[in-house]
Amino acid sequence: MLRDITLGQYYPEESVIHKMDPRVKLGGTVLYIISLFFMKNILGYMIAALFLGLVIKLSKVPFKFMVKGMKTILMLLMITVVFNLFLTQGTPIVTFFGKISITWEGLELAVFMAIRLSFLIIGSSVMTLTTTPNNLTDGMEKMLGFLKVFKVPVHEVAMMMSIALRFIPILLEETDKIMKAQIARGADFESGNLIQRAKAMVPLLVPLFISAFRRANDLAMAMEARCYRGGEGRTKMKPLIYQKNDYLAYAALVLYLIISIGIGRLTLF
Amino acid sequence: MGIIKAKDVIYEYMRRDEEGNVEGITRAVDKVSLDINQGDFIAILGHNGSGKSTLAKHMNAILYPTEGTVWVDGKDTREEEELWNIRQSAGMVFQNPDNQIIGQVVEEDVGFGPENMGVPTKEIWERVEESLKAVGMYKFRKHSPNKLSGGQKQRVSIAGVLAMHPKCIILDEPTAMLDPNGRKEVIRAIRALNDVEKITVILITHYMEEIIYADKVYVMDDGKIAMQGTPREIFSQVEKLKSLRLDVPQVTLLAYELKKRGVDLPDGILTTEELVGALKQNRKG
Ligand SMILES: Nc1ncnc2c1ncn2[C@@H]1O[C@H](COP(=O)(O)OP(=O)(O)OP(=O)(O)O)[C@@H](O)[C@H]1O
Ligand SMILES: [Mg+2]
User: Fold this and answer.
1) Lower CB count within 10 Å: N or C terminus of chain A?
2) How far apart are alpha carbons A235 and B112 in whole angstroms?
3) What does the pLDDT look like over B234-274, one tens digit per residue?
4) Taking the CB of residue A94, how many other CB atoms lie within 10 A of it?
5) CA B175 to CA B262: how far, in whole Å?
6) Residue A164: closest CA among chain B residues belongs to which residue?
7) Distance A214 CA to ligand 2 centre (A)
8) Is residue B13 in contact with ligand 1, taking CB distance under 6 Å?
9) CA distance B28 to B57
10) Do A39 and A172 belong to one domain?
11) Closest Cα partner for B118 from B88, B147, B89, B160?
């Protein structure tokens, strides 16, 4: 069950999107997400869907991988939808108990929120599925490099993130293993109320933390043994250099932003 | 002087209580001296807690001796300005493959060492290619390490060290977490490094059958070097090995028992083929 989290996992494939400079993908994802919050009508979202669909098609990653990531945030999605549905003021459609009512405005907001969140998650999965974490953090490091002037440890943070990403699947697998071992000894993670269930997690977290610290210690030693000494004087195996395709992608992105926001902000009704 | 030389090395771990006061001292390495020649295949044996890992960590300046001196490629490991040269000439492979692979893709992991050393991009690619080919993992270069078997992961770790062009590789129980097949494939890769690339290999292991290819074997006990010699010399002393809590391979044990009961066999038989050969010789003679 824990392995269903696809966010932060890389899907190896040879595609235009995979080969694209991570800075384009990072910037593109951020701009895409921003564009989603600027739209006011369904036409805008159709253009956003079209654009996303095209990118997914180009990335050659099976669609079901993107949707897998959705499962984990389904709860969050539902809560947002319900809140928007019931708590928005406006013209009521139906009213329960004379007090709580679903309004036209609420319905519209709920639908748009659901679309935004789904596109947001799928959009960022496209980025993480097509970019190796190293590549991604390289991109961030280079994009945010100017912060070094303000004494922000950009390289260190980037390295920490890429290591964290690499260890997520390993730690998840380990959690699964410890969970099964505890279940075999009679632990119960499924029944009882929230507090009881949270309590049942404690014997899970303790061994997990111990093993995570041991791993961190081992990894630090292995990195030092391989001459790691921070970002200074380090060369890159895959340095980031913009190619023709990257400029084209930037152009496509700008085009998308103009069209989607231009049309998305029209008042239709 | 050889590639690695240790003279009267002592290392003590401090055990501390909760306030950080010294509670006791564990002497993990006790007056060890050794001299390892360039190009040799060395094996270090010993039961749990005998100080093998502690000694190994002295060989690439992860630990420094409490007393005594360690030289790597002629340089004292305590000289701070030589630290990175030492770590480059003596690479280290650890036991758990999951905790030493840094990259998310095999080739990126192998490139990690050269990147740290400041090798130019083009040369990094050449080094990655040749290292992955040397351990037979080139066709997996685009794979995620998480999806490899234990033996394959360990070969990637070896390639990662190899890409730094070390003179010497220290492997601390690289096969301890592997199944028999994985063990074989890793040992094969290590032997190839030694035979073909002429890299000095220091293999720390629990498994006696892995040391039969070694030029020289050290057996550690309680922080000291208890025995040293060729594999044949070591295996001919079955009683002593048993007293050091080491498992003697079954063939060697069988030959030893036969010999004790009067069968005429040479000392320190290492492989089944050798025993069969010797027994056939006996029947003819
Ligand atoms: N970080 C540490 N702090 C304190 N004592 C330690 C530490 N690491 C090891 N020791 C002690 O030092 C001694 C030697 O340990 P070492 O890990 O070198 O043995 P080893 O031969 O590698 O054993 P194994 O076969 O289990 O790997 C042991 O008695 C151990 O308890
Ligand atoms: Mg050890």
Assistant:
1) C
2) 10
3) 988 888 988 988 888 888 888 888 888 888 888 778 888 88
4) 8
5) 37
6) B102
7) 14
8) yes
9) 12
10) no
11) B88
Residue type, B149: S
- Residue A214 C-alpha, separation from nearest chain B C-alpha, in angstroms: 9
Q: Average pLDDT, whole number, for chain B?
A: 90
Dihedral of CA atoms B192, B193, B197, B199 in degrees, nearest 10, equals -140
Structure tokens at B160: 């990662």
Question: How many domains in chain B?
Answer: 1
Q: What phi and psi values does residue B122 have, to the nearest 5 degrees? A: -60, -40
Interface probe for B, chosen from A214, A226, A240, A241 (most Cβ of B below 10 Å), is: A226
Residue of chain B whose Cα is closest to the Cα of A238:
B121
Are A102 and A93 in contact by the 8 Å Cβ rule? The answer is yes
Model pLDDT, residue B59? 94
Same domain (yes/no): A66, A196: no
What is the span of the domain harbouring residue A107? 1-138+237-269
Intervals of chain A under pLDDT 70: 1-8, 69, 268-269
Q: Is the Cβ–Cβ distance between B129 and B135 less than 8 Å? A: no
- Rounded Cα distance between A68 and A72, Å, is 8
Q: Contact, A49 vs A112, CB < 8 A?
A: no
End-to-end CA distance of chain A: 44
A199 & A128 share domain: no
pLDDT tens digits, one per residue of B120-129: 999 999 999 9
For residue B57, give the ligand 1 atom closest to its CA. Answer: 18
The pLDDT tens digits of the residues spanning B24-41 come to 889 999 999 999 999 999
Q: Is A180 in the same domain as A257?
A: no
C-beta atoms surrounding A40 within 10 Å: 16
Contact B128, B108 (CB under 8 A): no
Q: Is B30 exposed, middle or buried (0-12, 13-18, 19+ CB in 10 A)?
A: middle
CATH code, B77: 3.40.50.300
Coil vs helix vs strand at B206: coil
* ipTM surpasses 0.90: no
**Range(s) of the domain holding residue B50:** 4-232
Interface contact B160-A163, CB threshold 8 A: no
**pTM, entire model:** 0.79
Beta-bridge partners for B11: B29
- Using most ligand atoms within 8 A of CB, pick from B13, B30, B245 the residue to mutate for ligand 1: B13
User: At CA A111, angle to CA A110 and CA A113, rounded to 5?
Assistant: 65
Q: Does residue B54 line the site of ligand 1, with CB under 6 A?
A: yes
β-bridge partners, B25: B14
Rounded-to-integer distance, Cα A9 and Cα A21, Å: 18
Co-location of A72 and A183 in the same domain: no
In chain A, the number of structural domains is: 2
Structure tokens at B104: 């998310």
Instruction: Give the per-residue pLDDT at A4.
Output: 47
